Amino acid sequence: VPNLAPILPPVAATAQVIRQLSGEEIFLVHISPLIASKDEILRFEGKSRIDLAITFVELRELFTEANIHETDLEYSDFDEPLGYKGSFFPMANGIIQAAEIKEHLHATPVVTVEGEGMIDAIKEFEENIGTIKCHFNLFYKEFLMGRGTSMGGKRILRRSQLISYVNKRFKILDLEQWKRSMEQFKDLNLTRNFTPDDQSLPIPSESRLKKILKDLDQLESADVGCGACGYASCTDFATAIAQGLAIPEMCNTYASRNRQDHIQSLKISNEKLAQAQDALKKSERQAQKEKEAAREASEIVRRMLHKLPSMVVICDQNLKILQTNNSFIEMLGEEAQEINEVVPGLAGADLKTLLPYNFYNLFTYVLSHNESIRNRDLQHEGKLLNVSVFVIEKDKIVGAVIRDMSAPEVQKEEVVKRLNEAIDKNLNLVQQIGFIMGEGAAETERMLNSIIESYELRKDLKDR
Ligand code: SF4
Description:
52% of the residues lie in helices and 12% in strands. By secondary structure, it is α/β, with parallel strands linked by helices. It folds into 4 domains: 10-184, no CATH class; 206-250, no CATH class; 308-404, 2-Layer Sandwich (Beta-Lactamase), CATH 3.30.450; 411-463. The protein starts with 9 loop residues before the first helix and ends with a helix.
C-alpha cells in the first residue's frame, strides 16, 4: 500500500476542475468504460465527488430509450478545458505518454503490465524491487476493452481508432490555450491517500482441502496439475473452491467424469421414460377398449329399455330425467312425445313437470330415504299403474319400473300372482285364525278389491 502513487485518477481531478468552474453543487456523472467505476467513485469526496457513474453500454441504452440518434444531431466539441495527451488514457501506457515519461527501454523508469500477469508482477515487485528499480504501471484491463464498452470489440482496431482520433484532435488543439488551462488549475489538490483493506480470504483447513480434492478425484496429484482450470495445481484449485472463487466444474477431468455420469443417468432416464410411455400407450389402448365396451353395453341397455313393455324412467337427485324408454314417454302423452323428438329420451327434463305430485313424490321419498318402494298401485290418467321405485346410486340416482295394470299380459300375470298371494295369506290366516281373523279378512278384501278394480278399468277401456 505505501508504494501506491498518491495521486487522484483523471476522473476525480476533472471533478475538481468542473467544481472550480461551475460551483460546488453541480451534479457530476462519470461515463466510463469500466463497470468498476461504479464502486470507485464512492471513494471520492468533497470537491472530487462524483455523483453517478454509468457505462458506455448504459449510455447507449439511454440514447435508445430517449430515441436519440447520432445522425440526427449536430457535432459539438467538448467544453474547455480540453485534454491533450490525456486522450491516450484508455490505453495501458497512455498515462505514461500523457505524463511525458520516457518509454525507451534503456531509459524508462516505469514498467507497464496489463492483464492477468499484473498479479505476478506485484509479487515480483515485492520480492525484487532492489533489482528492478522501476515504477510499475499496472492495468488488469485496458480501458479500451473495459466491461462497460460494447461486447465483441477488437483491441488492436480500437487502439488504432483511438490513435487516429487523438492525432485529429492534436491538429486542431490550441496548445497555448491548453497551457493556460493547466496554469489555471495547477493549484488543485490532486493528492490522495490509501489505507490497507485486507480482502484476502481465509486459508481453508487441510481436511477441507482433502475432501474437495477427493471429490475432484485429484487426491493423488494434488501438488501438480494440468492447469486447464487456470490454477497452478489441483491444491490451488481446491483452495479457490473452498474460498468460493471457483466451482468444481472448472476442472476438466471432474467435468468430463460428471458428463459421463450425466450421460449414463440420462440414458437410464430415457429408458425408463420409454418404458413409461409404452405402459401409458398400453393403458390408453386398454382404457379405449373399456370405453368402447362401456359404450356398447350402454347402447344395448338403452335398446333393451326401449323394447321393454313396462315403462322405465331413471332420474337424478334433482328429479331430472337421465334415461327413459318409449313406453314411459307414450304414457306421458303427445306433448312429451313431441319433446322426445327434439330431446331424445327427454334427457334433463324435470319429472315434477311431467308427473303429478303423488307420482313423483315416490321418487322423492326413495331418494331421501334410500329405501325402495315396490309394487305401489297408482291411478294416473284413468289407468291403474303398478309402480316400483328403487335406488340405483345412494342419494343420487333412482329408477322406476311402471306397469300398466290394464295391459292384458300384465293383467293375467297380476291376477295369478295376486290370487296366489291371497291364497297363501289366507292359508296363513286360517292357521292363525284364532287371534288375527279380522285382520286377515281385511287383507283378503283389499287384494280382491284391487283385482276387481283392475278388471273394471279394463272393461271401461274396452267399452270406450
Ligand atoms: S483442471 Fe483439474 S486436474 Fe487440472 S489442475 Fe485443475 S484441478 Fe487439477
